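Example 4.3 (complexes with small molecules)
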Amino acid sequence: MKRWEDDAWEKSMSIKIDFSNVIVENVGENTGLSVSEINDLGEKASQIHEQLNYEREKGKLGFYELPYRESSVKEIREVAERIRGEFKNLVVLGIGGSALGTIAIKNALENPFSDSNTTKVFVADNVDPHYFGSLLESINIEETCFLVISKSGTTAETMSQFMVVHEMIKNAGRENSISRQLIAITDPEKGCLREIALQENYTTLTIPPSVGGRFSVLSPVGLLPSAVMGIDIDEMLAGARFMDSRCSSHQLWQNPAYTLGSVYYLADTMKRQNILVFMPYSNGLYGIADWLRQLIAESLGKRKSLDGKDVFVGPTPVKSLGTTDQHSQLQLYMEGPFNKIITFFRVETFSKKVPIPNEFPDIDALNYLGGKSLNDLINAEQKATAIALAKNGRPNITISVPEINPFTIGQLFFLFEVMTVYVGALYNINPLDQPGVEESKKNTYAIMGRKGYEERAKEIKNELSGNPNFVV
Ligand code: PA5
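Answer. The structure with 5-phosphoarabinonic acid bound is encoded below.
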């Protein structure tokens, strides 16, 4: 029996969210929310629940079904086994939603300093020439598998990296090995990557069409690299299913994603707290904060409402690391503008315990630390900061993660995805598109000379030549 099949274990791994420090009694009238203000959203939450269930049943919100695709998991495991058996390195080529989930998982579940013999996974999520060039120089091409991930199969960054690698494999005299060394994850039908993969006979896995990039972490996009890292993907999916069951209630306080989303929405619209700071007291969860930044920013930052009006909405997500950023950002959170709501993540039991020895018993400024552990210290600092912020009228939420494991990471992914589509419905915007990003992509095509974008290139040239120049 897997540990997640045991109800008692599952219950003990349930993440908890403490909202006490957003409530008016604890942070004061100016910045806090009253319970009745939150309750007033209850009816709306029930309506949205019905709407989301309807869209889920219609297959429009594909991310909800990702934890339930057993045949896909089997295929992922087989491909992962082949990669682990044949290659020393796996280099993931992808960006945005095609990379951030894997980075978050790697960050959380891989030992950062391990030098084990298993296949090493690298995620090349930028086209910085120094970074990408150095990565390619550092690996032995013959021992490396390249996993190209692009839902659209056309993204300039990923496809450029892909072409660089494709040529490298050819130049190493390994043309025959292209179909063995390249694997693609993309749309089942559309896009250049699908076309090339078919022509050149790559192993391919698919991203379901109804799953957008930033909602795809529990598809092959995040699961294949995880399986290569040796992470238990069944447990991660079990964690997501567990959260799905916790989010099945239409009642705001019974559904953690709706409670969280309601607080963020009300903080923004009633209290002008539109900066969401995500502050894990754990290096392992810092990648989750980064993944979440994209999920929130790209999903909720929108100009148009669903009825076509200009609304210009969306909270600004920020990531911060405890305790490190107590010595960098905390002063601002404590005494700066009242425009933030801070969400802490704390880990109840870390995978390691580091005791602090009582090396200098005669020095009072240090001996209080002796006999405790770094585990005690990091969690004491989180608690102390939450209390101090509340006392200063700064609302904050604490998400307690019993331990960092695939089950709790799966819960976090699913929680935030449901929260995001729920908040999208509260703002009355489409959380699944990204028209603002598309515009900059088109400008890049024009500047880089892509066929069909000649007009846009001329427009850019004219716009730039007409603009006043203030370069110093
Ligand atoms: O969430 C999204 O849709 C985006 O962030 C995409 O993941 C990102 O732009 C990369 O796109 P693609 O996977 O098509 O290469």
